[in-house]
Amino acid sequence: MPERARELAELKRIAVATEVAARAAGAAILAVRESGRADVQRKSDHSPVTAADLAAHEVLARALSAILPGVPLLSEEDPEHFTLPTSGPFWVIDPLDGTEEFIRGGNGFCVNVALCDGTRPVLGVVHVPVVETGFAGVPSDGAWRVRASGGEEALPGPLRARAGEQMLVFVSRWHMSRKVEAMRHALPLHVTEVRGAALKFTALAAGEGHVALGGGGTKIWDTAAGEALLTASGGFLFGPGGHALAAEAPTWKNPHWMASGDPALFPAP
Question: What is the per-residue pLDDT for 121?
């Protein structure tokens, strides 16, 4: 088997195991919701954290260390204990992406897991607990959906509008800004729909819309898994001027960004 084929087969194996781990984290989140004991607190940056965030973090930390022993873990819930390796892969996770939505009793939250090499994700998994559905992707090897009933379904990727056709654009309730609004107004004929957390990426990968927009309030753990999923399904994610996102330590902040399957929609560099 050629070396590249072996690498892709190994990434697919890791992605399948990672989807199982994310599913277990999703179950932990739902267990906290059912218990009614979310125990909401505020972190140093004033963002919320709940018992569900922490439970999902613990599930993922154990599972991912078993999948790839010794690979460092960058988690939204424990970023201060992460040291960026000089070479080799590292995990990036958001154990509960959409904590505000979870606290308010909504369903727009998910579990994000990405394996990165440098600043680029080489595989990504987004699990949606309320519908028990996982989305996984390995760039250059495709993206797929796993429902609770089992089995894999290939994802078609983002829609591409024909001339004069109205597009569907996904935006976030929590990360709007003047820059995001400017990007939205620069798009051709469209309507907008709110999709929380990384659910914007799963919707694009599943062929449910044309564009997703995000603000500078997001961080690497909000976008890495979705970026891998989107790229694997044939889409693109770029920041200002059509450049790739490049969140860096210690803040791990993203600039505003646009995701789509149509490169012509991105601003020229």
Answer: 95
